[in-house]
Amino acid sequence: MEITTEQYSKIEGYFPIQRGNVKNDNLRVLNAILYVAEHGCKWRGLPKRFGKWHTIYTRMSRWAKNGVLNRIFEALQRENIIQIRVEAVSLDSTMVKVHPDGTGALKKTVHKPLANQEEDGPPKFIWLPLVLGQQ
Fold first, then answer.
1. What is the pTM of this model?
2. Number of folded domains in the chain?
3. How far apart are the C-alpha atoms of 10 and 76, rounded to whole Å?
4. How far apart are CA 71 and CA 51, in angstroms?
């Protein structure tokens, strides 16, 4: 599931303009994201041909937070370059409450609520592509 340069030229306008000293072009980053999505591997498991995994992950995270990734995948579907079918839903484990007995932890004798509930920050980031026409 790799995008060719001809296919990329159809959706090139949906990507942000690259500035500065950029080693990985947008096409390579997109192909790396598709590789992770297709193979279900960890970011650290990306083949070396895509470049440094952390660079790819950082750009993907930035694109997802800014809405760029949704625009790109909508354009890929509109242009019939790829067809995405979401077959699995992922849950963020920080949102699932488990009783301490369920984790094998020792019971606490005194209940100590957090002084600041927002101390933990927002839940970890998970991005799932939207399928056009199935919202």
1. 0.62
2. 1
3. 9
4. 24
> Residue 127: inside a domain, yes or no?
no
- Mapped onto helix, strand or coil, the DSSP state of residue 123 is coil
Question: What distances in angstroms separate CA 66 from CA 5, 46, 63, 83, 104, one per listed residue?
Answer: 24, 23, 5, 23, 40
Given pLDDT bands bounded at 50, 70 and 90, which one contains residue 24? confident
Structural domain contains residue 74? yes
Rounded distance, CA 88 to CA 120, Å? 27
Angle between the N-to-C axes of helices 53-66 and 26-39, in degrees from 0 to 180, rounded to the nearest 10? 90
Joined together, the tokens standing for residue 78 give 């509109």
Q: Please report whether residue 38 resides in a domain.
A: yes
The whole-angstrom separation of Cα 1 and Cα 84 is 11
Q: What pLDDT is recorded for position 128?
A: 66
107 assigned to some structural domain: yes
